[in-house]
Amino acid sequence: MSNEDQNTDELETGNESRNIEDDADLKGAGVKYPPPIVFLMIILLGGGLDYLWPIGMGVSGNGALVGGVLILVGATIAILVNAEFKRRNTAIEPWKPTTSIVTDGFYAWSRNPIYLGFCMLSIGIGIALNSFWIFISFIPGALAVQIIAINKEEEYLEAKFGQEYLDYKNKVRRWL
C-alpha cells in the first residue's frame, strides 16, 4: 500500500469518525424519558399512596399559602429557565443537541435549577394538600432524574464542550 493510499484511508476513517460524532449529537444527551413527566408520575404515585394510606403532615391553615408560594416559585424557575434557553437558541430538552452552556442566572447557583424547580413544585403540592406522600415525592423524583437524565446530560456536555464545561462543573454545584 502506498503512502497516498494509507493517507486516504486515514482521512476516510477520520471522516467516518466525525460523522458518527455528528449523529450522536443529533440525540443530545440521549435522555429517553422527559424529566417533567418523571416528576409528574412520581407525584401522582404519591397521590395514590395518599389515597390508600393517608398520612397528613399536621399543616395548619397556612399550608395552602406556603404550598402555593413554593408551587409558584418552582413554576417560575422552570418558566424563566425555559425562556433563557430559548433566548440562547439552545434546546432545553435533553434529547436534543445543545448549542451552548448556560452558566448565568439560575445556572450560576445550580447546574440543575429546573429540576430544583420540579422539586419545589412537588414539595409545594404536598404541603398545599397536606400529603406526606406527595411532600416526600421530591426525593424519588430527584433520584430518578439524577439517574435517567442528569448523569447522561453531564457526560454529554463534558464530551461536547470539554474544559469549558469542566470549569463550570467545578465552580457550580449539581443541586445547591
Q: What would the keywords be for this entry?
A:
disordered N terminus; mainly alpha; Four Helix Bundle (Hemerythrin (Met), subunit A); 0% strand; 176 residues
Overview of the structural elements:
The structure is a single chain. It is built from seven helices and no strands. Helices cover 68% and strands 0% of the residues. It has a single domain, classed as Four Helix Bundle (Hemerythrin (Met), subunit A) (Up-down Bundle). The protein is mainly alpha-helical and 176 residues long.
The residue-averaged pLDDT reads 88
CATH topology: Four Helix Bundle (Hemerythrin (Met), subunit A)
CATH structural architecture: Up-down Bundle
Count the E strands. 0
Domain count: the total is 1
The parts where pLDDT drops under 50 for at least 5 residues are 1-21
Shape assignment: elongated
Strand content: under 5%
From N to C, what is the helix and strand string?
Answer: HHHHHHH
Distance between the termini: 58 Å
Q: Major beta sheet, specifics?
A: none
What proportion of the residues is helical, as a percent range?
A: 55-70%
**Could you tell me the radius of gyration in angstroms?**
21 Å
Number of helical segments with 4 or more residues: 7
The helix-and-strand class reads: mainly alpha
The first-level CATH class is given as: Mainly Alpha
